[in-house]
Amino acid sequence: MQSRSSDIDAIRQVVNQVLEVHAREEGAQRSQARAEILIHSMQVFAQRGLQRTTVQHLLDASDVSRRTFYKYFRNKMDVLESIYRIFVDNMLLHFHKEVKLAGSANDIIRNTTKVYFEYHVSMGPIIKLMMEEARSSSSALAPHRMRAQGIASEVLTAQISRFTGRDYDPLVFRTMLWMLENYSLYIFDDGGFSQERLEQCQRVAIGIAESLVLGEVTPGMLERHVAS
């Protein structure tokens, strides 16, 4: 089990990496104060939930003044939206990397599915909170979710078609992404993480995708695994 300090260090690495990319794209200078607010706010949201979190909780956790906070954010929802954008953009970075390294359609399906689940698990309980919030059409997080799904489904359509020679409807891959999204929520069901559910969801998701997209599935991929 990682310590809280190592958890923060892992989150800091992700946040700084993505904010550096954003700064280059926008021609701006990355603010470390803004980064620290985002880093420490993740822990607060994960522990308290969205409704029970206040701006004061975020100030206390990040050890910044109210003036500094409002220099970068309008409210707590603005913070959560920024965290979610970082999550989405980093997920897409991992996703593109796996697609480029793949040598077959099977590689794309298996590697992107595994990296999807691994990344969700590495981010911890805040993932469930953000994903549930992003599924609401009225949420500020919803456009980022739709953007990510659109990009991912287009990449999958083009790259898997390149290997198979088939012409897929992008909705096929968007449907698979919806399935993965539901599975990742299921992994954190009942307020905790389940390694058994992770392995089950990963195995079944790959089996369904290979069966649907490639017309094949590894024997046993969809069968129930009973512990001996």
Automatic annotation (TrEMBL):
Gene3D superfamilies noted in UniProt: Tetracycline Repressor, domain 2
InterPro entries named among the record's database cross-references: DNA-bd_HTH_TetR-type_CS, Homeodomain-like_sf, HTH-type_Tx_Regulator, HTH_TetR
DNA-binding region per Swiss-Prot/TrEMBL record: 54-73
All copies of domain HTH tetR-type, residue ranges: 31-91
Keyword DNA-binding attributed: yes
A Pfam family reported for this protein in Swiss-Prot or TrEMBL: TetR_N
PROSITE patterns, per database record: HTH_TETR_1, HTH_TETR_2
Keywords, comma-separated and alphabetical: DNA-binding
Transmembrane domains' residue ranges: none
GO molecular function: DNA binding
Protein name as it appears in the record: TetR family transcriptional regulator
Native source organism of the sequence: Alcanivorax nanhaiticus
Source taxonomy: Bacteria, Pseudomonadati, Pseudomonadota, Gammaproteobacteria, Oceanospirillales
